[in-house]
Design brief:
CATH topology: Serine Threonine Protein Phosphatase 5, Tetratricopeptide repeat
Shape: elongated
Radius of gyration: 22 Å
Number of helices: 6
Number of strands: 2
Strand content: under 5%
Length: 156
C-alpha cells in the first residue's frame, strides 16, 4: 500500500521563475517611479480617498508636468487622466475637460491612438452622468461627437 502525504514539506531553497520577456512589437514596461514621485502619488491617492479632490488634482498635475519634463509622455497622459478625474470629482468640469484634452493629445502624439476612443467614450459618459452635457458634446471649438456613431468629428 502506497502511503500519501497530505502536506508536502517546502523545499529549503525555492527556484525563482525568470521574468517573461515582453512580446515583440509591444512597448517595454515603464521604468519604476523615483521614490519622491512615488510618495507624492501615494499622497494624491490618499487625498482622493479622503475626499480632498482639488489638492489631489494639483498633485497629479504636478506629477504629469514632471513626467513630461522627463520625457515620459504616456505616464504623463495617465497622470493627466487622474487629474481630470479629481477635477471632475471636485466639481470643476472645465478643468477636467482641459486635463482630459491634454491627455488625449499626448496619447495621439505618442502612438497610443487605440486608447483614445475608449477614453473619449468613458469621458463623455462620465460628464453626462454628472450632468455636464455641454462639456460632453463639444470637446473643443473644432471637434464634436457624432450622435450616430459616437466618434469625434472635426470641423472643416
Amino acid at each position: 500500500m502506497i502511503r500519501r502525504r497530505p502536506f508536502r514539506r517546502r523545499p529549503l531553497f525555492r527556484r525563482r521563475i525568470p521574468p517573461r520577456p515582453h512580446p515583440p512589437g509591444a512597448p517595454p514596461p515603464p521604468p519604476p517611479l523615483p521614490p519622491k514621485a512615488h510618495r507624492a502619488l501615494a499622497r494624491a491617492n490618499g487625498l482622493m480617498v479622503d475626499g480632498q479632490f482639488t489638492e489631489a488634482a494639483n498633485i497629479f498635475r504636478q506629477l504629469a508636468d514632471k513626467a513630461q519634463e522627463l520625457d515620459r509622455p504616456i505616464r504623463a497622459a495617465d497622470l493627466m487622466i487622474r487629474a481630470a478625474r479629481a477635477h471632475l470629482a471636485a466639481g470643476d468640469a472645465s478643468a477636467a475637460v482641459k486635463r482630459a484634452q491634454q491627455a488625449l493629445l499626448l496619447f495621439t502624439r505618442n502612438g497610443r491612438v487605440g486608447r483614445v476612443p475608449h477614453l473619449l467614450a468613458r469621458m463623455t459618459e462620465t460628464l453626462r452622468n454628472k450632468n455636464y452635457h455641454a462639456e460632453a458634446e463639444w470637446h473643443d471649438t473644432h471637434t464634436a461627437e457624432c450622435p450616430y456613431c459616437g466618434t469625434v468629428v472635426k470641423a472643416p
